[in-house]
Design goal:
The chain is an all-alpha fold. It is about 75% helix and about 0% strand. It has 12 helices and no strands.
Length: about 260
Amino acid sequence: MKTKLSNVWRYRFLLTNLIGRDIKVKYRRSKLGILWSVLNPLLMMLVMTMVFSKFFRFDIPNYPVYLLSAQLLFTFFNDSTTAAMGSVLYSAPLIKKVYVPKYIFPFEKICFGFVNLMFSMLALLFIIFITRAPIHASLLAGFIPLFFLFIFSLGVGVLLSAAVVYFRDVMHFWSVIMMALTYATPIFYPESIWEGTFMMFLGKLNPMYWYVKVFRNCVLFGLFPTGTEILICALFAVATLAFGTYVFNKTQDNFILYI
């Protein structure tokens, strides 16, 4: 791990150039440019608020903040891991020409997604201001679950980037998993909708449940993360990163034969 961190620093210019390239490609020929990182979650939040707070009548105080605080985290996880999944495969021309640590590519995608997430947080602050939701000191503690979500997403992204080199079907399978996670995480519905001990137990096995819950508690309910919550978030993050790194290291020498 120490070697990998030193390589990240050594190739920091490549990393920043790749992130800059992704930003330019994503917003190329867009009049509003990176402003869409703020507008997109706002517009999605407005649509989902109309649907779920009116038609389904979920009686949740400060529902726009409740919804957006979870939506931003889940969008980051979905977009960054999906991009990281194909990062090694789509970087084949560069990998075949020069030596670059292959884990730089999924790492860059997660970093790019996190940059977008930070811009999108402006949308959350805007909604808090507009709806006059209370601002708590615990808001600053929201970076704790964000940090662990970054580590968790990196572990998942590294694992997927290795798996998809050998099995292209992983790309299609991952979209199904993400759909399942969307409904298994209380993003647009209250946690109280879970009925029975089995559903509660099953839901709490979902790592995204914990990252969303802890972040939402910090932003909306003024609750600082407890020691137990921090430990659970850290365990999911570290275990996933360790497993993803292990699989990546074991398989990366044969990438050149499959990309």
